[in-house]
Amino acid sequence: VARILEAVVGAVTVPVTLKIRTGWDPSHRNAPAIARIAEEAGVKAITVHGRTRACGFSGQAEYRTIRAVKDAVSIPVIANGDIDSPGKAAAVLAETGADAVMVGRAALGRPWIFRTLLAEPGTAESGWTPDERETRGVILEHLHDLYGFYGEPQGVRIARKHLGWYLDHLPHPLDFMRSFHAETTAAGQLALAESLF
Ligand SMILES: Cc1cc2nc3c(=O)[nH]c(=O)nc-3n(C[C@H](O)[C@H](O)[C@H](O)COP(=O)(O)O)c2cc1C
Questions:
Q1: Which of 61, 66, 75, 77 is the most buried (most CB within 10 A)?
Q2: Protein residue closest via CA to atom 1 of ligand 1
Q3: Whose CA is nearest to atom 15 of ligand 1?
Q4: Is the pTM of this model over 0.90?
């Protein structure tokens, strides 16, 4: 690990950050040792997902090991795993002493979650969701960005999974995703997405 990180840090002029899990499996949680190696190699911040490699995505993320990483290094530590609400974000920050949290799955189909995570738990702002007009705007802008960034053929493919995630939280006709999957052009996908509203 030291050799890999030193090579990366030495090869680029930008700050290098690292993202790791807590260890191989629950009896080999080596994240604090890896974090120290990373800090010595010149890594500038470290994110820890509170599961081991062997755990995959099963069970609950645990935060004690992230606390141990925070205690082991002086570079910023970012806590990750199962954070899906302002209350959970506040609890994880308190338990780990981390400098920040990272959110993955809870943002799929709900990219506005970042706006609510900073709100005081239990307030109206913490439960905020966009109205229909704003939701439509976010989805259409996201689709345009996918086509622009990846190019149309790949963007169209990637758009399918994102639209599926948006629909997890939106009312839609039963066969909508089947029609969306059948669309092979950006224009066709955009028209279908607009028809949701
Ligand atoms: C669809 C998907 C793609 C992911 N891609 C990456 C990736 O490219 N690099 C990475 O370090 N983690 C990746 N992850 C893991 C997440 O960054 C995160 O560590 C994990 O999902 C736990 O956080 P969460 O409970 O907030 O989702 C991915 C997760 C998902 C669900």
A1: 66
A2: 105
A3: 104
A4: yes
